[in-house]
Amino acid sequence: MKKLVLVMYVVLCALSAGAQEKMKEAQPHAELIKQVRQQVAPDTRVTVFTVGARMLGDTCVLIGDVASDEVRKKVLAAFASRAIPVIDSIAVLPSKDMGLKTWGVIVVSVANMRNEPKEAAELGSQTLMGGVIRVFKKKSMWYYIQAPDNYLGWVDGEQFFRCTKEEAEAWVKAEKVFVIAPFDFVKESPSQNSAGVCDVVGGSILKKVGEEKEWMHVSLADGRMGYIPKFSVTGYADWGTKIVPNADKLEKTAKQFIGIPYLWGGTSVKAMDCSGFTKTVYLLNGVMLKRDANQQAEDGMDVDPGKNWENLRKGDLLFFGHRANGERPERISHVAMYLQNLSFIHSSGRIHISSLDPSSLLFDDYHVKSFIRAKRMLK
Q: What does CATH list as the number for 174-236?
């Protein structure tokens, strides 16, 4: 019976736009969906949950996407607990038309992740070459993916190699190198005068094929091969083991990027937003931070900065925004990294150093007034 009702609904929608117009938004049920979302997907930037409800007569039609059948069943159970009749049109991703190729590996230095499947859409984030992604669904030339840091967005299909789970696992197991240079090129032959295969940025991952004197022979996931100077890479197995952060290394990395322009959604050395900058600095020192400033503020150890900022240490992250006030909740909108002597470095307009000291020429009155908290990411 349920299948028959669902078929009738689909047919009605297909026959005329008028049928869709009759489906009023189910406002009374929006709060129930919100309650379920808060339980199973409190942060929809990193968890697929786009469930909505429409009314078709006295029946509630549930639409949208989730990432597991377990979540779909929780939504249905919530409506059943209130004896609300529903038509279940919730899609569990990956979409069935993706077949077995529901994974991928990024094959450009920086893949742009947009909030909608079109070039004009807002840039939400970026993910770097060699990163393994989850591929959920397709719309035209765009694919809805989940990056290695769990961030969700739409990526142009030309920017990654789509593959099966087994192929993705083979890439993960292969010996690889990690790009430590801020920027470089993979060359067709082991010579700086050779033509380029592609560019790479700090944080890119390449498969190791072999070595030739001062060059590393590498390949991308799509089969392209070339050479990169050995001094620009290190063994990927060293990331997070031999490559571990300390205060001086973080400062050195951060200062390499001074002058790079601010870009909303940017997380690479080509251009960065504030949290993309701190994320990149820590990434190149063996630590994967979360994507956005308010997400980064959830981690690390709370630090009381002291009356005169005397408790801050190099490498601490400083968070800015506005505090909770009455009905207005706290909102963290900016992050910076503390250096020393009351100075901090951040991406605001461009990457530059500012000061907490009112007597300094670099004093940043705006951000000092909007300071919320400090977190220590170094153990």
A: 2.30.30.40
Q: Are 224 and 198 in contact (CB under 8 A)?
A: yes
Burial class (CB in 10 A: 0-12, 13-18, 19+), 83: exposed
Task: Using alpha carbons, list the distances in angstroms from residue 93 to 61, 98, 131, 331.
Answer: 18, 9, 20, 31
Residue pair 146/152 in contact (Cβ under 8 Å)? The answer is yes
Count of residues making up the chain: 379
Q: Classify residue 159 by its DSSP letter.
A: G
What is the assigned CATH class of domain 247-376? alpha beta
Phi then psi for 189, rounded to 5 degrees? -135, 165
Please state which CATH number belongs to domain 97-171: 2.30.30.40
Q: Using one digit for the tens of pLDDT, what is the confidence trace for 110-163?
A: 999 999 999 999 999 999 999 999 999 999 999 999 999 999 999 999 999 999
Q: Which CATH number is 2-93 given?
A: 3.30.1340.30
Q: How far is CA 309 from CA 190, 247, 262, in A?
A: 50, 17, 27
Name the 3-class secondary structure at 364: coil
Q: Is 18 exposed, middle or buried (0-12, 13-18, 19+ CB in 10 A)?
A: exposed
Three-class SS state of 100 = coil
Give the start-to-end residue ranges of the domains of the chain.
Answer: 2-93, 97-171, 174-236, 247-376
Task: Report yes or no: 106 and 63 within 8 Å, Cβ to Cβ.
Answer: no
Asked if the domains at 97-171 and 247-376 fall in one CATH topology, the answer is no
pTM of the model: 0.90
